[in-house]
Amino acid sequence: MRVLFNEEMKQIADDLDTMAAAVKAAIDGAGKALLDNDIDAAQSVIDGDLKIDGLEASIIDQCVQMLAKQSPVATDLRIVVSTLRIASTFERMGDLARHIAETARRAYPDSAVNPAIRDLFEKMQDFDSHTAGEIISILQNRDEDRAEKLIVNDNKLDELHTQTFSIINGEDWKGTQQQTIDAVLIARFYERIGDHAVGVARRIVYMVSGFDPSKDPTPLLAGGLDE
Amino acid sequence: MRVLFNEEMKQIADDLDTMAAAVKAAIDGAGKALLDNDIDAAQSVIDGDLKIDGLEASIIDQCVQMLAKQSPVATDLRIVVSTLRIASTFERMGDLARHIAETARRAYPDSAVNPAIRDLFEKMQDFDSHTAGEIISILQNRDEDRAEKLIVNDNKLDELHTQTFSIINGEDWKGTQQQTIDAVLIARFYERIGDHAVGVARRIVYMVSGFDPSKDPTPLLAGGLDE
């Protein structure tokens, strides 16, 4: 029984790693679609989202089976419950990357990105791509310290998000109304991807240590998941 | 043991009902804040969001304790896992209502709502408020048929969301740049609240029947949870 249990746990962990890699690929593809106006990249992210949805469904099924048949306790139970929740968060990150790709596709052959906001979106893209890469590594290595660093860095993305509105509200903004709409939404999608990544980092800390950093009363770590 | 189990299940179900009612109150308060420019209502939604976050944390704790100590199977397990996921969705719905309230507060004493889009936002508000009310009732009565009706009706909200962009992009739109930004975000928040409510309805169907309608291949029900 125990051998089987460990094999099944390993399978679930592998699938979660696969899902993390698929989410990172979707975020990178969304960036290519948006910033390089790459319609093939856009289509590939949109099509690939079904795979991410399928991975979520499969991981949740496996977790529920595991709970039903093995009745894990203590650390094992924490891992299964965290995995359930992380899989759902990954699924949403994939949706958000798809939204960015869809925005690029709708604007094509024009660009959804007005030049005045391009630099900011490149920064947000880099932030989310880097964060998704960190999540892959943290998940594989159960690296609590790096997870905590990610949680603390979240306010950088919030600052970038706030800058969006200064740019759009500024006198130099010459974007079309559609570019204004797209910029507001894209900034929101980028910010949500980053927030969800932080949520995953929190859950990895909980998974590894049993301590939930979203309940930490210090201001640095306060503020739970959003939307 | 069984008596204790049922008592604990009842407590979790009661807390989830309390959370559903708090989410409905937050949505209604956000509507008052936004559409009646009611700053007290806005503040009350913003302050009240902490209570919703606390309920989520408590419900998740109870579910994990339940899994650890009682090892539920079959229907009971399905209820516990669904409850975990529904509590997280309610938490996000509360965040979104808070975002609407925050938008109203930021604009105050001006209104965040340009008159040209007021009618549309009233409809979206009514939709979300009605849906949240249905969720309370469906949850209490485990009413699968009404849950399925809610799932099918979701496209009405999508239509309202799409209309937002027609209005903002239209020639008659005279909103300030800030009102444009606010309108794009508010419409998005309303649409997300409705999507999450549909996600809850799907999970209630799964909880009651063991059938997951998000896996139904018919176009009417296809398309999973978003963001």
UniProtKB/TrEMBL annotation, chains A, B:
SUPFAM superfamilies: PhoU-like. InterPro entries: PhoU, PhoU-like_sf, PhoU_dom. PANTHER family: PHOSPHATE-SPECIFIC TRANSPORT SYSTEM ACCESSORY PROTEIN PHOU (PTHR42930). Residues 17-103, 122-204 form the PhoU domain. Pfam families: PhoU (PF01895). Homodimer. Keywords: Cytoplasm, Phosphate transport, Transport. GO terms for biological process: intracellular phosphate ion homeostasis; negative regulation of phosphate metabolic process; phosphate ion transport. GO terms for cellular component: cytoplasm. The lineage of its organism: Bacteria, Bacillati, Actinomycetota, Actinomycetes, Bifidobacteriales. Belongs to the PhoU family. It is found in: Cytoplasm. This is Phosphate-specific transport system accessory protein PhoU. Plays a role in the regulation of phosphate uptake. Its main location: cytoplasm. It comes from the Bacteria.
